[in-house]
Amino acid sequence: MAAAKKRKTPEARIYDTFIVGAGISGLCAAIKMKKEGYHDFKIIEKATRVGGTWRENTYPGCGCDVPSSLYSFSFALSSKWSHLFARQPEILSYLEEVSEDFGINELIEFGTELEHAEWDESRHLWVLDTNKGQTLARTVVFATGPITEAQIPSLPGLDSFKGEMFHSAKWNHDYDLTGKRVAVIGTGASAIQFVPQIQPKVKELHVFQRTAPWVLPKPDMDLGDTSKQLINKLPIIQKSWRKAVATSLNVINFGLRNPAALKPVSTAAKQLLRVQVKDKTLRKAVTPDFTLGCKRILFANNYYPALQADNANLIPHGLVEVEGNTVIAANGERHEVDVIIWGTGFEVSHPPIGRKVIDANGDRLSDLWKDTSPEAYLGATMKDVPNAFLVLGPNVLVYDSFIGLAEAQLDYIIDGLKKVKQKGITRFAIKPPVLKAHNDKVQKHLKTTVFNSGGCKSYYLDQNGRNFAAWPWSLKELKRRLSDFNVGDYEVVYQSAEKKKAA
Q1: 82 CB contacts (<8 Å, ≥6 apart)?
Q2: Positive or negative CA dihedral for 295, 301, 306, 307?
Q3: Residues 262-301: b if buried by 16+ CB within 10 A, e if exposed
Q4: Among 104, 466, 168, residue whose Cα is nearest residue 340
Q5: CB 186: neighbour CB atoms within 10 A?
Q6: Cβ contact 74:408 at 8 Å
Q7: Which residues contact 310 (CB under 8 A, 6 or more apart)?
Q8: Is the distance from CB of 261 to CB of 250 less than 8 angstroms?
Q9: What fold characterizes domain 158-221+228-342?
Q10: Where are the membrane-spanning stretches (predicted)?
Q11: What pLDDT shows up at residue 4?
Q12: What is the DSSP letter of 461?
């Protein structure tokens, strides 16, 4: 009898590209790759639907502070926005529609979370472990976003609190706030949106404010059905509106790079506060003591009225301790509450994706970032992290739409993916001297911007005072730099002649 033939173990499927995340960046990456005829990719999403931060944040009043005309993909303009500034439910609906219209939903593996990503130097491949199994890929696009992990401070006595407690990004819609005594911790972008929504319901509202933010009037309005029909019928209106908004944001960006130009706006804003807030003590407490733009500029029309309501109490100090159901401010002020709502933002200086990625030296990125914050070249490629891109990474933040920034950066990334494939490159990594020169120049020019010189401590700065977030030049300059993937900036390894022949 003939000997049985030895069965071959099938080789693992190797994708050209692996995309992590199906929020704004991940969807944009997949759509642009499809448009370029690039189909050999896999996209995973840990949740059961697309949307990223707009899926996770559902707190009352949640919306965008960038006009809706600009908060949309250039290739998928919408005429459905109900207001000049879109609300969270319709932004999420828009992203879901875009995913469906461009055939991305069917490509996404939902309920799949990246657990570990490690570079295999011997094979020039990424080994990606998920809760659904292992995948191999030649390149990776980490589209996990900069606003993903809610931040709750560790405070003495917090474990002793017996009431309800949640972060704004994990809002408990099943808990009825009616008649409750509520402590809101933080006065950032989320808090100024949900505070006016919950204030009429609660018995007592205690708002803990470490630093008074600049809150400017929001030029919002209901567009109505007639306006939406007109925009739908005449796309030129949408395009002109989008261009006008982009121009106005460029003016703001100029001011952020040249703080002296914002002085008249600061003066006018302080004069406006005299009209908005009648009580002198409260007005003094909500008047910022730093240059406009140093921290994120906030926009709201109902925040100051909410703080002046009879049941509201602004505490111009941080929360430092909890004793049972008593919350204690830095000035010793004590209040018994039923609920603590954290409006304390997100961990942005140390992106959570760093805990899951192992570089070419076998180091975990989060360990390398432990005493500093991450660096990248054009916010996209990192030292010793070959064949990988990060979307909306360090030092690309411009006062504009995140969607617009993601689009610009993905043009660079996809140009890189195409060139790598065309040239038969199996490994590419940013040259350390190129990375250093780029970041040295970025940090030098950031010194004179309002972010660094405006006299505040913002989330743009890490624990060492280094600005890891902002781009120090214009959006036009960022887009110019991102318009071409220069292979010369990278150390590359080409496919061998034998492998080319076999391929």
Answers
A1: 90, 222, 223, 228
A2: positive
A3: beebbeebeeebeebbeeeebbebbebebbbbbbbbbbbe
A4: 168
A5: 26
A6: no
A7: none
A8: no
A9: FAD/NAD(P)-binding domain (3.50.50)
A10: none
A11: 42
A12: B
Is 90 exceeded by the pLDDT of residue 226?
no
| CA-closest candidate to residue 20, choices 132, 146, 144, 104 | 144
Per CATH, the homologous superfamily of domain 14-149+347-502 is FAD/NAD(P)-binding domain (3.50.50.60)
Q: What is the pLDDT of residues 400-444, one digit of tens each?
A: 888 999 999 999 999 999 999 999 999 999 999 999 999 999 999
By the 8 A CB rule, do 189 and 297 touch?
no
Amino acid letter for position 317: H
Q: What is the DSSP string of 25-41?
A: HHHHHHHHHHHTT---E
Lowest mean pLDDT among 61-70, 293-302, 345-354: 345-354
Q: What is residue 386's DSSP assignment?
A: T
Distance, in Å, from the CA atom of 82 to the CA atom of 63, rounded to the nearest integer, reads 12
Whole-angstrom Cα distance, residue 142 to residue 429? 15
- Scanning the structure block, which residue is given the tokens 């992203």? 95
pLDDT tens track for 158-207? 999 999 999 999 999 999 999 999 999 999 999 999 999 999 999 999 99
pLDDT tens figures, 326-335? 999 999 999 9
Per-domain boundaries in the chain: 14-149+347-502, 158-221+228-342
* Lookup result for tokens 């121009």: 247
Q: 326 has which bridge partners?
A: 323, 336
Q: In the chain, how long is the greatest CA-to-CA distance? A: 101
Residue 233 pLDDT class (50, 70, 90 cuts): confident
Segment 221-246 shows an average pLDDT of 77
DSSP helix/strand/coil, 409: helix
Label residue 370 by pLDDT band (50, 70, 90): confident
Encoding tokens for residue 224?
């109505």
- Within 397-471, strands assigned E span 425-430
